[in-house]
Amino acid sequence: MIRKTLSEVASMIKVENDVTAFADRKIAGASINSRNIEKGQLFIPFKGERTDGHRFVEDAINKGAGAALWQKDVPNPPLHLPILIVEDTLIALQELARSYRNELDIKIVGITGSNGKTTTKDMTTNLLSEKYKVQKTEGNYNNHMGMPLTILSLEETTEIAVLEMGMSGRGEIDFLTRLARPDVVIITNIGESHLQDLGSKEGIAEAKLEIINGLQEDGLIIYIGDEPLLHNRLKSYEGPATVKTFGRTRLNDLYPVEIEQLDNGSKFKINLSDTEFILPVLGTHNVLNSLAAIAAALHFNVSFENIKAGLAKVRLTNMRMEILQGLHGEKIINDAYNASPTSTQASIELLANLPGYKKKILVLGDMLELGPEEEKFHFEIGKSICAENIDAVFTYGRLGSFIAEGAKNIFSEEKVFSYGEKQPLIEELKKHVDDETIVLVKASRGMQLEEVVAGLQ
Length: 457
What we know:
The longest helix has 16 residues, at 284-299. The two termini are 40 Å apart. Helix content is 33%, strand content 21%. It has a six-stranded parallel beta sheet, with helices on both faces. A six-stranded mixed beta sheet has the order 16-17-21-18-19-20, with helices on both faces. Helix 3 packs across helix 5 (146-152), helix 4 (117-129) crosses helix 11 (304-312) and helix 15 (422-430) packs parallel to helix 16. By secondary structure, the chain is α/β, with parallel strands linked by helices. The chain has three domains: 3-88, MurE/MurF, N-terminal domain (Udp-n-acetylmuramoylalanyl-d-glutamate--2,6- Diaminopimelate Ligase, Chain: A, domain 1, 3-Layer(aba) Sandwich); 104-312, UDP-N-acetylmuramoyl-L-alanine:D-glutamate ligase, CATH 3.40.1190.10; 322-456, Mur ligase, C-terminal domain (Protein-Tyrosine Phosphatase, Chain A). Helix 5 (146-152) links the parallel strand 8 and strand 9.
């Protein structure tokens, strides 16, 4: 992590006050949360609509913070404390991260996409860690505030950082990639998330492609070649980077030649090796995510033997294809971290194709941020469910009710259940499960469907 004296920090960002009295005081790392500040960290307060972090500066320093930033327009700065007065604390955080990143001798892998960013980040980190010292974006620190904090957490001895880049609108990934200056960029896919902000999938594709803007010379672009919105834009790319594609079809540089769905993951082979890989994560879509990670690993000369070892150790963040057991012996796939039409279709396909269960039940909730056609998207999801492979559909939420309406075109009404509250859903669901049942739970994060999962345990 960043380790500097205050005089060194003052040389990296524009500071408005004289820090001579505290010039030799050291900071180690940075935090925006005064409640869990760690010894030596630089505390960065922000002015919000409801609260002002500057109120907690003195408390943070008393708890062990090495120093704190202070925004110039906030009155009464505690000049008796080690503070650095700046024009804007967010901009100062970003500029400090930019300066620190430029000091580091490190390779960066930047990852974006509508779905699968975090999964691909975790997989890429695993594969590269077989050969290098690697750090990654923790949690959801993937935006204009989180990425600077991630960069400031990087150790000087780290060889590769795997950074997730999220967005809600145009220009955000452009900022992040220019800050990180990646050597490899991965675009996992183009889905419907952020249609509300960007208006069309074409707009989403353009926003995701901003990640190329910060790519270093002689870098590598990895993208899903099955996506026409990306392929049509990148097939004529004439920049200095190398371009590699991954996907289902043989038109890609990297593709699976065999996939076998296991009870707790997937077994597969790829076109570039005879190695048989075991991925302890469910879903063909996650095999595809692993191909992007493999392409990045090969770029950094990780052997297939090490790639195999790295994939076998993959463990995803909670609520992403998390396999649990219920009170009645039923298996539960908790995929309630997030949802879009693309990722929901992939989860439904996974459940339909899983072997070894007599009964398969879907629990689906609202998919958010889909714009003016959100009701149509939900209805179409319901219509697409295969009644031959799924035994019952439960939905939750206002938009979830449109999934139920679509499903009634396929299923008899006694197999479709729609609820506006979770507890009645849980009570009815319990009547349908036993030790030969598997239940998949999927919705956008805001729907908190992990509460349904907890109700079954």
